[in-house]
Amino acid sequence: MTFRPGALSRTTRALAVGALALAGVTALPAATAHADATTSGDVIANLWEWNWDSVAAECTGVLGPNGYGAVQVAPPAESLKQSSYYWWDVYQPYSYNLNSRFGTASEFAAMVSACHAAGVKVYTDAVINHTAAQTGTGYHGTTITNKYDTPDWDPGDYHQSDDCSDSDLVIDDWSNLTEIQNCELLGLPDLETENDSVRSGIAAFLNQQLALGVDGFRVDAAKHIPTADLQAIEAKLTDTTSGADPYVFQEVYPGSTPAASDYYASGDVLDFTYAGKLKSAFQGNVSDLESLPSSGVLAPADSVSFVTNHDTERNGLHLSYKDGDTYKLANLFQLAYKWSTPTVYAGWEFTQSDQAPPNSAGFVTDTDCSHGWYCLDRDSAVTGMVKWHNAVGSEAVSHWSTKSSSVIGFSRGTAGYIAINNGSSAATYTFATGMADGTYPNVIDNGATTVTVSGGSATLTIPAKSAIAFYDGEFTPCTTSCEGDGDGGSTSTVTATFNEYAPTTSGQDVYVVGSIAALGGWDTSKAVKLSSSGYPVWSGAVHVPINTSFEFKFIKRDSSGNVTWESNANRTAATTTSALSVNSSWNVATANATDVTFNVTATTDWGTNVYVVGSLASLGSWDTSAAIPLSSASYPTWSKLVIVPKSTAFTYKYIKKDASGNVTWESGTNRSYTTGSSSGYTATDTWK
What we know:
Blueprint: H1 10-23, H2 30-33, E1 44-47, H3 52-63, E2 70-73, E3 78-81, E4 93-95, H4 105-117, E5 121-126, E6 136-138, E7 143-144, H5 161-164, H6 177-182, H7 196-211, E8 216-219, H8 227-234, E9 247-250, E10 268-270, H9 272-282, E11 303-305, H10 312-315, H11 325-336, E12 341-348, E13 359-360, E14 363-364, E15 373-374, H12 380-392, E16 397-402, E17 407-412, E18 416-421, E19 427-432, E20 438-441, E21 450-453, E22 457-462, E23 466-471, E24 476-477, E25 493-501, E26 509-514, E27 528-529, E28 531-534, E29 537-545, E30 549-557, E31 563-565, E32 571-574, E33 580-585, E34 593-601, E35 609-614, E36 628-629, E37 631-634, E38 637-645, E39 649-657, E40 663-665, E41 671-674, E42 681-686
Parallel strand pairs: 1-2, 1-12, 2-5, 5-8, 8-9, 9-10, 10-11, 11-12, 25-33, 34-42
Antiparallel strand pairs: 3-4, 3-6, 6-7, 12-15, 13-14, 16-17, 17-18, 18-23, 19-22, 20-21, 20-24, 25-29, 26-27, 26-30, 28-29, 30-31, 30-32, 34-38, 35-36, 35-39, 37-38, 39-40, 39-41
Helix pairs in contact: 1-7, 3-4, 7-8, 11-12
């Protein structure tokens, strides 16, 4: 449900503009704020406590290109700043000024504009039930000595013990609606939202964000505000700069009083039960998900789904990144299943529940997805499923198949199919997909493998803790019969995966361009951009014609569009009817390169990461400043694919670097490895 506010008075609109002026920001004209916005879908990326510059970059480089519809960002108001920094500081507002620990008001406005230009809506976390419990100084210098006397509110604007019917103002009885909504949550001063002047003040705070282009709000602690009060506040909101109604979704933490359904009148509700059911299934039997609609989850038209959030990943209520592939697989299911609006959560790695995001003197530093942050939103399987989700649209779940307690499959009408294996080993089954006969790229591995459907069925070997998914927006029909094709023998294209070792400077990206149309026909403006998720190895999959020889090269392009070509001769490749993998290094002939995936089991303290360094140039030539950072996505296993020469012996070691750059070498002698003349090598080690 989207809240649809009525017309606003001049006074209410003036309050919004005045608040913007106080924040030091000029309101954006409606025609400018959404001029280039073309929202792709409804999936929300929850970039929890990312700073504004990082959110802007993610909208431009990841969310928009991959079809996310919106981004949810942290509370933008000035908040409590302590000598010891915690994540929950931002849920203690000091003032409604938009200069915060995530950046300045101008950076906030620039972030909204950048996201809109990428076709991504912006929803902010609205902390409007309360203000800060602790006195002190905020991130914009606001000083509070009495928690009931703040820049925005006077003591009379808060609930007192007579309103709460409890002398200590503490919520003691969680079945008592008056206590829940008029007493103080964790000592946080509770605003008197039944008072019209308080409602107007809250609305002015939200309207200053709407004037900057914000598209909606996630209402924090909504169960502590009567739904009638929320409706009254929402009635004072302006339209968004695109002329639409602001979208409202609410945090109503589980409990019988009040019930989540009580809040349908004031907006959609985040579904904690849905996330709980996913945890139970993915830690037990995923076959149980067939009965998900009748399991007590909220109505899909009135809810927003999620796998975890900042509270529940810490208190154990739901899954978290620490559950590894199980957690990612639950997110893939959420994106595949037809239910409510899905969210994908991307936060940071933590060892203590109160731990703040990576910061400098409390101010959140730029997100680095290879160091300390867990950027699930950009995982290739997840982005593949966002596109899948958008492609299948409103098609219903059908062709449900339960092969075992760990293996399920279902379609979305005839638009797309997914098979999920939550088991610990690969599983092979034949699924009735309902899809048209043909060959389809598997979006889970970015098209590196394909699926053949014959007679509406497909025999799939699903890797452990993974999935296979495909949809009808991108496939090659069978010309006669698909039987026996394996990887697409009767089709016209095959997947070529390019892996290029190419260190770059800031602002540079790597592309592949070549002699065939799929590679741009040597036109650099049509070159295929590769992903930097495995940096310094850049990777990408392209569908190229079968039984075809072609030439290609890699190029680097900076933010100004300047192109740098490799200096070596044109590379060559030839396809058959099987998938092709090309491993190479910048300025090194393709025939001389292969790949080794390094895996090491190593535990670390917060802020410490693991690298591999060795005797080869692509391993840093023993220079620790050029060591290759490994991914902690499967912690405590750290991994990364590295391009190395074929038929070559080399030595290497693993190192750890802390947040200050201090290096710790593993003990013992140097490790050694020798590559052969093929590809796909793996080194599996344990830190010593």
